[in-house]
Amino acid sequence: MRSGVEAYIGTFWEVSDSAATSFAAGVYTRLATGARLDTAVQESRKALYEANESDWANYILYGDGRFRLVVT
Fold first, then answer.
1. What is the largest CA-CA distance in the chain?
2. Is 61 in a helix, a strand, or coil?
3. SS3 of 65, please?
4. What span, in angstroms and rounded, lies between the C-alpha atoms of 7 and 10?
5. How would you classify residue 25: left for phi > 0, otherwise alpha for psi between -120 and 50, otherwise beta?
6. 65: closest CA among 12, 9, 14?
7. 19-71 confidence digits (pLDDT tens)
8. Rounded CA gap, 44 and 27, in Å?
């Protein structure tokens, strides 16, 4: 972040492959449809929670969540 990165998605601990795949797919799908980064992360975490994935709380967004990949 000190080098100029506006946002970073990190984890608190090691994640399972299935949770990581689901989370990444959810974030990128939401970004591709115009969602803000903070919303994409929040909704992807919620989807993991609803799927009973124990890693749902593992993902955290640092920085500015207002980023949009696609402006709608």
1. 36
2. strand
3. coil
4. 10
5. alpha
6. 9
7. 999 999 999 999 999 999 999 999 999 999 999 999 999 999 999 999 998 76
8. 6
